[in-house]
Amino acid sequence: MMTDLWLIGMGTGSPAHVTLEGMQALRDAAVILLPLKGESKEELAALRYAILHAANTSAEIRTFDYPLRDPALPYADRVRVWHDAIAARWMDALGADAPRGPVALLVWGDPSLYDSTLRIARRLIPPPTLRVVPGITAVQALTAAHAIPLSTLNGPVRITTGRQLRAGGWPDDPRDPDCKDTLVVMLDSDCSFRALDPVGLHIWWGAHLGSPAQVLRAGPVAEVADDIVATRADSRARAGWIMDTYLLRRRSPPTR
Question: May I ask which residue range the UniProt record assigns to the signal sequence (predicted)?
């Protein structure tokens, strides 16, 4: 029975993105659960193994195959069923003969930022005691790679998803119509920035952040959008997967 579950942020795949606390947690864990996502994403497992090697952990590694989402279901149902299946596979991987002690999971980016690992963990019965060890987030890795601050001077920042951007466009706040400063977009496989009014809009985009395959693009959306789309497609084809994010900032109000 799992009594303690540790969720350890692994940044965007570089061992350097795991904190000293995270490395120590990997050494102190009894079991580490490691997801396998198919042949096309073997590098994702290799990155996790590289982090475990850097931590010099003696924990037992238990692998599990990641379930696929059912595209026939509505989005909310699809995600709910998927999360149920992931929780079940964690428990199947542990089985009845797992060593006693903390179980650890490396979580891409950060366990608290657009990640469902905490929601999945709360499906477990009986519920384990949760410990979250933050790592470098994709947002931090992006702004550091471009050497830019996350916010403008005293300006607001909003973090959203590609799905939300496609559905609602730039998220204006009706209580503050001037709230147009900075928007960070994650989980966007469709490059949804192309649907926005490009006037005055600047983008800082990055993929495979912190790795040797890192690629960066920045500039006015009107000038670099096509290049980002092409670069993203090429990078995904080379690796078989891609994790990217971007920051949008309006340099001046759009003209009408």
Answer: none
